[in-house]
Amino acid sequence: MTARTHHVALTATALLGTALLTACGGGAAPVTGEDGRTTLTMATVASDSCAQGFFGVDQGIFARHGIDVTLDVVAGVPELAAAVTSGQADVACSAPTAIASGVSQGLPFTMIAPGIAYTKDNPGSNLVVPAGSPITGVADLPGTTVAVNALNTLPHLASRAMLEDSGVDPESVTFVNLAFPNIAQAMETGQVQSGVLQSPFTENEEAAGGRTIGSPYDYVNGGQPFVYTVWFGTTEFAGQNPEVVTKLREAMAEVSEWANDPANADARRASLAAATGQTAATASTSRLSNYGTELTPESIQSQLDLQVRFGTLPEPVDAATLIAAGSTS
Fold first, then answer.
1. What is the pLDDT of residues 168-179, one digit of tens each?
2. Which of 22, 127, 144, 303 might form a disulfide with 193, Cβ 3.0–4.6 angstroms?
3. Residues 289 and 308 both lie in one domain
């Protein structure tokens, strides 16, 4: 049995305060009944980056693994941390960089299973310029303004790495924070000269004559695969429920294998359209992401190193310390 609930957004500042206060107390309640079935609430957002929850429910994969899931669909990424620390959700989807930042501020987070995975042929994030732009490559970016969906997150940090590794001073480029739907309009009006976009916004801009000039994610791990969204919970939850961590990891691996199979593309698009409210036409043109099937320290370490490199983590972090026991094979 599955339910989906929706919540109104709060401010990020208020949510961080709530998360920090909640993390100081409370406990993880048992989630597995005498019949061996596990009841879980999963907090997620309605996007492809966190869509495994929808696929797992719609395809009955969680149920086959003995997990009865309630999906708690929140308004935005900041609410995910508060949902977990408050006990509103057992697990949630976020980025490894967000988890590392939270842990550095005292939040008791641990990663359980992988989400979206970067591959060279499907990077998931692209630097796009509008139709008619004179910009042809990274060397043309000094003195321009680039839009990212959030500052100090992976799209921003990876863009800084792309600039620096290409011999361009990152300080010569101005970065501004704009939501994905607003970046195209900002490029059209000249407010920004380029933007880091994800599907379906990349495809929409290219259809309007825009061009992709590269992927910042190519500079995160030397072009090698890495996982840039994860499912996480509190250390207390994982410590008290190691068998649930294993069960959820195995279920998520099957979800990822199902989603990555081209034969399931139509069913996947239908689930995604229902979850996000996209039209069938938009869903049909969106490029589908790849999902990771295994969460290892190597699959996330390069992102944490990038945070240290650009000062968003105060000191180096060993990725292995952020992964729940039993969540690697």
1. 999 999 999 998
2. 144
3. yes
